[in-house]
Amino acid sequence: METSEKYxxxxxxxxxxxxxxxxLNIEGVKKxxxxxxxxxxxxxxxxxxxxxxxSVSYFNRASLRxxxxxxxxASSDLxxxxxxxxxxxxxxxxxxxxxxxxxxLFYNK
Length: 109
Hints:
mainly alpha, 0% strand, single chain, 81% helix, Serine Threonine Protein Phosphatase 5, Tetratricopeptide repeat
């Protein structure tokens, strides 16, 4: 079976909410690339509001919040990503990066 066929079969197993979440995350990333941060945050937030909870949407929003300087919001999203049970190791990596960046930006003067 070709890779594209495997990919299509895996997409067919997704629920409607999972497909919408995927679309919203892709749209959010596109908007970030264009500098449309408010609408990107909206896309990530709408994806988060849909069940089931997933770490990807939280990571995307946390990354954007961190970039925009919303450290409290970013930290909250990273903690929510941990609680989602998915990508626990990656969430710890983001936490480490987050706290190193906070230190470098605000305390290392």
